Amino acid sequence: MKVRYFAWMKRTVGVADEEISPPADVRTVGDLVTWLRNRSAGHAEALAEGAAFGAAVDQRTVTFDVPITGAREVAFFPPFTGG
Questions:
Q1: Which phi and psi angles does 41 have, rounded to 5°?
Q2: Which residues contact 55 (CB under 8 A, 6 or more apart)?
Q3: Residue 41 carries which DSSP code?
Q4: Which InterPro entries has this protein been placed in (predicted)?
Q5: Rounded to whole angstroms, how far apart are CA atoms 78 and 7?
Q6: Which of 21, 45, 65, 82 has its CA 20 to 30 A from that of 34?
Q7: Beta-carbon contacts of residue 27 (< 8 Å; ≥ 6 apart)
Q8: Which of 62-65's residues contact partners 24+ apart within 8 Å by CB, and which partners?
Q9: Main-chain dihedrals φ then ψ at residue 15, nearest 5 degrees
Q10: Phi, psi at residue 73, to the nearest 5°?
């Protein structure tokens, strides 16, 4: 699966995207966030507990309890506003 990071999250993690193979017990977006925090200090900072960021699975905005089984892409992005 591909994981993509946007805006300041990309700079903090140090990559715009990466191919990953999480273990079988990583079933939801929230599980993935917890697992990714252990990849590097940058991941831990960008995905810190309590940090404000959103997620999308296969280009659809989702909540962190959404399953990632079969997903091709998960993206993380900072909050944004419209106008």
A1: -65, -35
A2: 29, 33, 61, 62, 63, 64, 66, 74, 75, 76, 77
A3: H
A4: Beta-grasp_dom_sf (IPR012675), Mopterin_synth/thiamin_S_b (IPR016155), ThiS/MoaD-like (IPR003749)
A5: 7
A6: 82
A7: 67, 68, 69
A8: 62/29, 63/29, 64/28, 64/29, 64/30, 64/33, 65/28, 65/29, 65/30
A9: -145, 150
A10: -145, 140
For the segment 11-32, the average pLDDT, to the nearest whole number, is 97
Beta-bridged to residue 74, according to DSSP, are: 3, 57
* Region for 29 from its dihedrals, namely left if φ exceeds 0, alpha if ψ lies in -120 to 50, beta otherwise: alpha
Q: Is the pLDDT reported for residue 65 higher than 80?
A: yes
pLDDT of residue 37: 97
Task: Give pLDDT, residue 83.
Answer: 55
Dihedral sign computed on CA atoms, order 31, 3, 46, 41: positive
Average pLDDT over residues 46-68: 96
State what percent of residues in the chain have pLDDT above 90: 92
For residue 40, the one-letter residue type is S
How many of the other CB atoms lie within 10 Å of CB of 17?
A: 14
